[in-house]
Amino acid sequence: MATMATATSSYNRMKEVKEFDESKIGVKGLSDSGITSIPRFFIQPPETLYDLKSSSTLTNIPIIDLADVSSSALRPKIVEQVKDAARTWGFFQVINHGVPVSVLEETINAIKAFHDQPHEVKAKFYKREEGQGVMYASNNDLYRAKAAAWHDSLQAWMGVRKAKVEDIPEICRKEVVAWDKSATEVAETVMELLSEGLGLEAGKFKELTFSDQRAFVGHCYPYCPQPELTVGITPHSDPGVVTVLSQNHVPGLQVKHGEEWVDVKPVPGGLIVNVGDFLQIISNGEYQSVQHRVLANSCKEARISIVIFYNLNKWKGDGYYGPLPELLSPEKPAIYRNFTMQEFHDNFYSKAIDNKSLIQKLEIQN
Ligand SMILES: O=C(O)CCC(=O)C(=O)O
Ligand SMILES: [Fe+2]
């Protein structure tokens, strides 16, 4: 017994985490080395592990066809669909969005090619730099999270304070730049529809600079030998306004719908859009920022996803953010208090990604 107690207490979690980080090998490197069990600091707590499974329902998140978005006769129906999806699911897929399938495939392939490089090659990009530039690392919140998750990511800031293009690894540079442009066009169309869904002018969110500060992330979820003990990404909601995502055919993404986790089944050529915390707050709770997670990958082939997170750059006004005044009335008073960008960032960067607390902190208690 005494030996066991010593063995347990001598486990120095932080030391192992640091050694892993400093090795710059990533989970891809661990996976490629042929390990059959995962390092202990990846083992998730029981509250995360107890319900890890594919969903039992055949439900899929709503699929919205944008083909007729410019038709004044058909647009109102699309606005209704987008509004309904953002209120009830917080997640939807759009098809006929105008981005050629080849652009999606090329970007996914380029990100896969980046992660497939030998780790000595990727090591020179490995660093932790928050809120700017280009960063490649395993788990952005490695030092803050209770347990690490089974993914590595390449991140590049785009928009107003963008990374230097030449800092983006050459193997995927052209594709990342092209995808940013295409995805942002889709995001602008969707934000117009979401704005109209709130009874606001189509250009309202553009005016609020919703897409001016954005982050590209190319995730890699390699094969995990013990998928029942960890996750690909822990349950979380996205902090920004809106997220646009595309994935390869390897499954894993799930969305919380009521009490259930629902698999997001990729639709060929489709793009996944989800509402972030910021949009939930400024829409005064009309649109939902929903929890989602990725299961640890049990397929031999890596799961790849390409994501752009859209964030406001500035606010025309006094530097405070909160429910849009246009949406408030005596019947619909603000359910969130105003906050500063500093508060928003402090909340995001001081915690693991799995917190929902900014929304909870801002709720006005009656
Ligand atoms: O890889 C995915 O499908 C989801 C990634 C995600 O939720 C995130 O990066 O916030
Ligand atoms: Fe997310």
TrEMBL record:
Protein name, entry field: Fe2OG dioxygenase domain-containing protein
Source organism per UniProt: Carya illinoinensis
Cofactor(s) recorded in Swiss-Prot or TrEMBL: Fe cation
Family: Belongs to the iron/ascorbate-dependent oxidoreductase family.
Transmembrane segments: none
Keyword terms, alphabetized: Iron, Metal-binding, Oxidoreductase
Statement: the UniProt record of this protein carries the keyword Nucleotide-binding: no
Segments forming domain Fe2OG dioxygenase: 209-312
